[in-house]
Specification:
The chain is an alpha+beta fold. α2 packs across α10, α4 (94-114) packs across α9 (262-289) and α7 packs across α13.
Length: 742
C-alpha cells in the first residue's frame, strides 16, 4: 500500500518536486483555457488569468481537498454572460456590477461552508444538472462559433445566434476559418499522433502555438484586406488577443451600485448555485481518482472556494471552481499534495508576465475553437444518447431543463427542471401532493445497528432527490468499515439521483473495508436497463428475465455452469487490471461462471458497467468480458487490435512506462496486434511459436494480463449468446495451450 503524503508544510517539503512537475503541465493547459473562458464570458481576457492565479494561491491556503486544481471553468461562462446582460445599463460598468455579484456569492459560499451545508448540492436532480450543462455548452458554442468563423451576431437570443452561424456562413472570413480549422483538427487528432515531439505540450497549447505562424503569414498586425477567390476580407489587430502590458493594469474593482436590484440578486444566486454544485461534484469525482483515496472535506472546500471567489471578485477575476480537466492532469502527472495547486497559480503568474508579448500575437479564433469544441462536447448527440439510456423520463427532464434555460436563464432553468422532475415523480408514484411529501419526509425510514456491528437501513416511501439529505443523515451515523444492508423493498419510487447517492456511498464504504448490499428492488420496474434508472414498485409484479437472460440461464443449465442475473456490486478483483484501475467500475451483472475440467482454470463471463471521465462529463459504457484465473504466473501485458481507434481501447496505450513490443519474425501477428508491457524479456519469452500461431488463427480479442489472470473482451458492447459461447470456447482452447507450454 502506498504511503499517504504528509499534510501541510511537511507535505510541501517532502513532495515539492513531484508537485512542481505536475503543476507545469497543469499551468500550460490553464493558460489558454483561462483566457478563452474569460473572452467567452464577455469579460476582459485577464479576468480568467486572475481567477486561475487566485484559485491556485488563495484556495490552497484554506481548502478541504487534497489534489484538485481551482480556477475558472466553462460553467462560469453562462452565469457571467447572464450577469452582464442583466445589469448592462449603458454606463460601461456592467462587468464591475458582475464583480460585485461574484464577491457576494463568494461570501454566501463561505457562510454555507461554515454552516456545514455542503451536502445541499446532492439534492439537485442529476438529469436537471446535465440539462443545465448542456444548455451552457450550447451557449458557449453559439457565442464562440462566430468568433471562430469571423462573423458576428447581434441577437441576444442564443437560438438566433445558432441560426445566424449558418445564415452568415457564406460571409465567414476564410483567413480566420483556416486558423480555427487547424486548431479543430489538432483537438480531434492530437491524441492519435504517435510522434513524441507533439506530446511535449498539451493540446490547447499546440492550438495556440500553431496559430501564431498564420498570424505572421496573413499579417494580422496591420489593418488591411486580403483577397480570397475574388472577395476581399478585412484582417488586422482586432482579430488578436488584447491584454495589458502590465498585469497590474488588468485589475478591476467591483461596483455595488446595483445591490438593491432583482437583476443583481438573480446574478448572485445563479453564480452561487452553478459554481457550488459543480465544485462539490468535481471534488467528489477527484476523490475517486486520487491514488491515495483521500476524502475531501466538502464544507471546508466550499468555504475555501468562497473565500477565493471573494478575493477574485475584488480584483477583477471570475468565480473560482474546482476544475476536473486540470485536476485529472494534475493527478496523472504525479501530484501528491495541495501545493501543486499553488505552484500552478504561481507559474501562471510567471507565464503571463513572461509570455504576454507572445500571447498578444494569438488570434481570438484560436481561443474560440477551444471553447467551440468544449461546448459541443457538453451538448453532443452522445450526451443525449447517454441520458436516454438512463430512461426516457430522464431525457424529458434533461431536454426540458435545457430548453427552459436557453429561452430564459440558468436560475429559471434549474428551478423549472427541478419542478418538472418533482411533478413527474408525483404522477409516477400515483399519490396526492400531501401524501407525496409525507412519503418523502415522514415515511418511517430508519437505521438499525445489529448485534454483530453491521447496520440495516430500511428505506420507505418515496426515495428521490428530495430525500437525499435524510439518507445522508443516516449514513453519517455509520462508522467507516462497517457492513451495511440497504433495503428498498418498501419504496414506491426510487429516483436516479437517490440511486447515484447510495451507489457512491457503497463505493466509499467499500474503500474503508465495509460491505454494502443494496436489495429490495426485485419488484420494481423501470423504463431502462440502466441499473441506476428511476424505479417504480408495482404490487405483485413478477420480474421476468429478458430473452437474453433466459438464453444465458438455459446455457448454464445445459452445461452445468452457474448463472446469476442479479447485480453484483463487488468488482474489487477487476481493479487489479490496469484498464479498470483508471476507470471507475460501477457493477457487474448476468454473471456466468464455470471451471475448465482438468485445467484448474476457473472462468467468469459478466456484463460490466464502467465510466470514462468524471463528474458531469462522465460517460457510461457496458461491455461483456471474460476473466480466466490461471494456476500459473504469467507476465503482465496488454494485447489489443493494431490500429484500433476506439477511444476506450486506444487509451490503454497510455500505460506509464509500457513499451510497444514487435515480433519481427511474425509480421502477420505484429500487424494484427499491439503488445504493451514493461518487462520485454519476460513477455517475449511468454509469446512462444505456439501462442503466436494461436492468436494469428483465432478471433482477435483484446487481452490484458495482471500476472495471474487474463481479462478478454471484443468490443465495448454486450455480447450475444453465440458470442458468449465463442468466449467460452476461446477461453478453453487458450487455457489448454497455456497449461501445456507455460
Amino acid at each position: 500500500m502506498e504511503i499517504i503524503p504528509k499534510k501541510g508544510f511537511r507535505g510541501l517539503i517532502e513532495n515539492w518536486k513531484s508537485d512542481l512537475i505536475a503543476a507545469v503541465s497543469v499551468s500550460l493547459i490553464a493558460l489558454p483555457l483561462s483566457l478563452g473562458i474569460a473572452l467567452a464570458a464577455g469579460a476582459p481576457a485577464m479576468a480568467g488569468i486572475i481567477s486561475a492565479i487566485v484559485g491556485g494561491v488563495v484556495t490552497t491556503l484554506y481548502r478541504g481537498g487534497h489534489i484538485s486544481v481551482n480556477g475558472p471553468a466553462k460553467g462560469v461562462i453562462a452565469v457571467i454572460l447572464l450577469g452582464i446582460v442583466l445589469m448592462d445599463d449603458g454606463s460601461g460598468q456592467a462587468f464591475n456590477y458582475v464583480l460585485a455579484a461574484v464577491v457576494v456569492s463568494g461570501a454566501i459560499q463561505v457562510l454555507l461552508g461554515l454552516l456545514k451545508l455542503g451536502r445541499l448540492a446532492d439534492i439537485f436532480h442529476s438529469s436537471v444538472i446535465h440539462g443545465i450543462l448542456a444548455a451552457i455548452g450550447i451557449i458557449i458554442f453559439a457565442k464562440q462559433i462566430h468568433v471562430a468563423l469571423g462573423t458576428h451576431s447581434d441577437s441576444p437570443s442564443i437560438i438566433q445566434n445558432l441560426v445566424d452561424a449558418f445564415k452568415y456562413l457564406p460571409q465567414a472570413n476564410p483567413f480566420v476559418v483556416i486558423i480555427a480549422l487547424v486548431g479543430l483538427l489538432l483537438l480531434l487528432f492530437h491524441s492519435k499522433i504517435s510522434y513524441k515531439f507533439f506530446h511535449i505540450l498539451p493540446t490547447p497549447m499546440w492550438v495556440i502555438a500553431l496559430s501564431i505562424p498564420f498570424v505572421y503569414f496573413f499579417n494580422f498586425f496591420d489593418q488591411h484586406t486580403l483577397s480570397f477567390f475574388g472577395k476581399s476580407y478585412e484582417v488586422g489587430p482586432h482579430l488578436l488577443l488584447d491584454i495589458p502590458d502590465n498585469v497590474m493594469d488588468s485589475i478591476m474593482h467591483p461596483n455595488f451600485g446595483k445591490i438593491g436590484t432583482i437583476e443583481f440578486w438573480t446574478t448572485v444566486v445563479s453564480i452561487l448555485i452553478i459554481t457550488s454544485i459543480e465544485s462539490l461534484a468535481i471534488a467528489k469525482a477527484v476523490d475517486k481518482i486520487d491514488p491515495y483515496k483521500r476524502k475531501t472535506d466538502l464544507n471546508k472546500d466550499l468555504t475555501g472556494i468562497g473565500l477565493s471567489t471573494m478575493v477574485a471578485g475584488m480584483i477583477g477575476g471570475l468565480p473560482i471552481i474546482a476544475v476536473i480537466i486540470r485536476s485529472t492532469v494534475n493527478i496523472h502527472n504525479g501530484a501528491k499534495t495541495k501545493w501543486s495547486n499553488m505552484y500552478q497559480g504561481l507559474l501562471l503568474l510567471l507565464f503571463i508576465v513572461v509570455l504576454s508579448p507572445i500571447m498578444r500575437q494569438v488570434p481570438l479564433c484560436a481561443f474560440a475553437i477551444l471553447l467551440v469544441y468544449t461546448g459541443f462536447k457538453l451538448a453532443s448527440p452522445a450526451v443525449f444518447k447517454q441520458i436516454y439510456n438512463q430512461g426516457i423520463e430522464q431525457l424529458i427532464f434533461f431536454v426540458g431543463t435545457m430548453v427552459l434555460t436557453l429561452y430564459t436563464n440558468l436560475l429559471i432553468g434549474l428551478i423549472g427542471g427541478l419542478l418538472l422532475a418533482m411533478v413527474s415523480h408525483m404522477l409516477l408514484a400515483k399519490v396526492s401532493i400531501p401524501q407525496f411529501f409525507k412519503m418523502i419526509y415522514r415515511s418511517g425510514s430508519n437505521l438499525v445497528k445489529k448485534p454483530d456491528g453491521s447496520y440495516d437501513i430500511k428505506v420507505k416511501g418515496i426515495a428521490n432527490f428530495l430525500g437525499i439529505l435524510k439518507i445522508d443523515k443516516m449514513v453519517t451515523q455509520i462508522p467507516s468499515g462497517a457492513d451495511v444492508n440497504i433495503d428498498l423493498s418498501e419504496t414506491r419510487l426510487v429516483g436516479i439521483t437517490y440511486m447515484d447517492y447510495i451507489v457512491d456511498y457503497l463505493k466509499i464504504q467499500k474503500t474503508t473495508g465495509g460491505k454494502v448490499i443494496i436489495k429490495g428492488l426485485e419488484s420494481h420496474v423501470s423504463s431502462s436497463t440502466y441499473n441506476r434508472a428511476l424505479k417504480i414498485a408495482l404490487n405483485n409484479q413478477v420480474v421476468k428475465l429478458s430473452s437474453r437472460q433466459t438464453r444465458l440461464q438455459n446455457l448454464a443449465n445445459e452445461n452445468d455452469y452457474q448463472y446469476a442475473n442479479q447485480v453484483d456490486w463487488n468488482t474489487t478483483y477487476l481493479k487489479k487490471f490496469h484498464f479498470f484501475e483508471i476507470r471507475p467500475i460501477e457493477r457487474k451483472s448476468n454473471c456466468l461462471k464455470g471451471t475448465f475440467k482438468g485445467l484448474d482454470v476457473s472462468w467468469e463471463i459478466a456484463d460490466v458497467t464502467f465510466s470514462e471521465g468524471a463528474a458531469f462529463t462522465a460517460e457510461t459504457f457496458n461491455t461483456t468480458l471474460m476473466i480466466l484465473k490461471l494456476p500459473k504466473k504469467i507476465p503482465v501485458f496488454t494485447m489489443e487490435k493494431e490500429g484500433v481507434v476506439d477511444k476506450i481501447i486506444d487509451r490503454v496505450r497510455a500505460y506509464s512506462g509500457y513499451k510497444d513490443i514487435d515480433f519481427e519474425m511474425y509480421p502477420d501477428f505484429s500487424k494484427k496486434f499491439l503488445i504493451l508491457g514493461n518487462k520485454e524479456a519476460e513477455i517475449r519469452s511468454f509469446f512462444t511459436d505456439e501462442i503466436i500461431r494461436f492468436f494469428e488463427n483465432h478471433q482477435i480479442y483484446h487481452l490484458e494480463s495482471n500476472g495471474e489472470a487474463l481479462v478478454i473482451y471484443d468490443k465495448i458492447k454486450l455480447a450475444r449468446t453465440d458470442e458468449t459461447i465463442a468466449f467460452i470456447d476461446y477461453g478453453k482452447e487458450l487455457s489448454t495451450l497455456l497449461n501445456e507450454i507455460v
